[in-house]
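Protocol step 4 of 6: structure prediction from sequence.
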Amino acid sequence: MFYKIAMILFIFVASTSVLSAAPDVTGPAVPQNLHVFDALGNTYVDHAPHGCSGKTFLISADHVKYNAIVSILLAAQISGKRVALRYDGCNTAPQGLVVGVYLQD
């Protein structure tokens, strides 16, 4: 009986910690090498490495705010303004999966 209760408690704690993991935010940097690379329309940008990501981050073409994110990154790259990227984990490349962007200057 104790074993079953312990297993249920372990599964509950493990699942709530995974579900509550918040996206991470990079430090500020000027984005570089913004480019659409594959047939799916995914966009990549070089930024300061952070967490699980190397210097390249991925903006999925399926993201609801894809146009807004790419517009801000393009404007920041052209003007030399710093941004922070909000990303939710990494793919196997490892590239951070961008979910938001913040102007820093």
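Step 5 (inspection) to follow. The longest strand covers residues 83-90.
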